[in-house]
Amino acid sequence: MTRGIRWVAGSGPGHDEREGAATRGLPSCPSIRYEDRESPRALRLPMTAIPQSRLVTIFGGSGFVGRHIVRALANEGWRIRIAVRRPHVAHFLRPMGRVGQIQLLKTNVRNDDDVAAALDGADAVINLVALIKQSGAQRFDAIHVEGSERVARLAAAAGVKRLIHFSALGASTEAPARYFRTKATGENRVQDAFGGATIVRPALVFGAEDDFFNRFAGLIRMMPLFFPLFGGGKTRFQPVFVGDVARAAATLLGDETSAGKIYELAGPEEMTLKQVLELTLRETNRKRVLIPVPLVIARIKGAFLQFVPGAPLTYDQAKMLETDTLPSGRAPGLRDLGITPTGPEAIVPSYLWRFRKRGQFEALPQ
Ligand SMILES: NC(=O)c1ccc[n+]([C@@H]2O[C@H](COP(=O)([O-])OP(=O)(O)OC[C@H]3O[C@@H](n4cnc5c(N)ncnc54)[C@H](OP(=O)(O)O)[C@@H]3O)[C@@H](O)[C@H]2O)c1
């Protein structure tokens, strides 16, 4: 009989000592204890010990969502291979695990040989690679459709047991935005290529490094008096906390009953674009008049701005504003995984203070 080994989160603040707690907790500064299931005594291994456990390849593991998933899975003792195009800018991930636990591999999902090498010996795969803006060879079709299908097909050929594929809430072949249409086609191709793939559709994801609240806060800082309220600010979202998404990914990886299912991960409350901007203004302690602007103007602005480096809006993003991204209510979500969703009001104040005039030294009016 093989000896079962598990990692458990340590006893720092906010840690849950119950069995399996490490799958649900994302401690900010974990102390990790090594345990042997068959021994009543917890063993302590030196920091140089390499966990002899299963290997997960995470395509796109250096991105916003990926780094949180890497930390959650490192806490559970997975050996992690992070497959990205620019491993040299992803070394910040290594201290999330023990020595040798996390490795980086230069991989382009547009290339068969790269993907096959990244899958070598992997027990499980998570694919997070996606684009919000096209540039050069990085096209929505090449990444969301062909890249996703390539990872799924080669993972099946390599005998990988579990595949978690990240799509997005709002993915539909009928959606106005190409991002959502290619995400939907990608889902279908993944399901055809890898029987039992788990599809995860997160809502807009927020957290300290997000490109949502941070983006609005940055734009608000640049615009002195007014801020455009595209479509009257009526577009509805249900933003989900990145820490909850990471816990969900870790739970799904260990739960074989999730194979073949689609999960929709959304936060606890629905918000309109106007409410998102109001929260951003409040937390950055700034005042702007929100001026309603028709969605067609957003499209026109996006059509020109998308050619500017670091464009704040593209034509496709303007089209994304035309669709509410809310859970359908028909698919399982965070609560079905035992995770209570965290709302933006609880997290956003912890990082938007950077955009106040005097940063952390500026208190909000009571
Ligand atoms: N963030 C959100 O609000 C949100 C909402 C809904 C769904 N999602 C989905 O969640 C997933 C993760 O999103 P994210 O926000 O973490 O994305 P992200 O921050 O843009 O990260 C993308 C990752 O993909 C890698 N990558 C890009 N092109 C690649 C290629 N050709 N080959 C290999 N790696 C490549 C990037 O690293 P390199 O550049 O070094 O290659 C990076 O690690 C995506 O599927 C996204 O659609 C995100």
Keyphrases for this structure?
366 residues, alpha/beta, Rossmann fold, UDP-galactose 4-epimerase, domain 1, 2 domains, seven-stranded parallel beta sheet, two-stranded antiparallel ribbon, 12 helices, 32% helix, 17% strand, globular, binds NADP nicotinamide-adenine-dinucleotide phosphate
List of distinct ligands in this structure? NADP nicotinamide-adenine-dinucleotide phosphate
Number of helical elements: 12
- Please tell me what the overall shape is: globular
CATH architecture of the largest domain: 3-Layer(aba) Sandwich
Strand residue content = 15-25%
Unreliable spans are: 1-45
Total count of domains: 2
Task: Compute the average pLDDT.
Answer: 88
**The named CATH superfamily of the largest domain:** NAD(P)-binding Rossmann-like Domain
Q: Give the helix level as a range of percent.
A: 25-40%
Sequence of secondary-structure elements = EHEEHEEHEHEHEEHEEEHEEHEHHHH
Task: Please give the order of strands in the largest beta sheet.
Answer: 5-4-3-6-7-8-13
Largest sheet: 7 strands, parallel
The CATH topology assignment of the largest domain is: Rossmann fold
* CATH uppermost class of the largest domain: Alpha Beta
Write up what this structure looks like.
β3, α2 and β4 form a beta-alpha-beta unit. The termini are far apart. The protein has helices at 21-24, 64-75, 112-119, 140-157, 178-193, 213-222, 242-253, 273-284, 295-305, 315-320, 344-347, 349-352; strands at residues 5-9, 32-36, 55-59, 79-84, 102-106, 124-127, 162-166, 198-202, 205-206, 226-230, 236-237, 240-241, 262-265, 271-272, 289-293. It is 32% helix and 17% strand. It is of the alpha/beta class and 366 residues long. The chain has 2 domains: 5-205 and 241-268 and 328-338, Rossmann fold; 206-240 and 269-327 and 339-356, UDP-galactose 4-epimerase, domain 1. Bound molecules: NADP nicotinamide-adenine-dinucleotide phosphate. NADP nicotinamide-adenine-dinucleotide phosphate is lined by residues 59-60, 62-66, 84-86, 107-110, 128-130, 143, 166, 168, 202, 204-205.
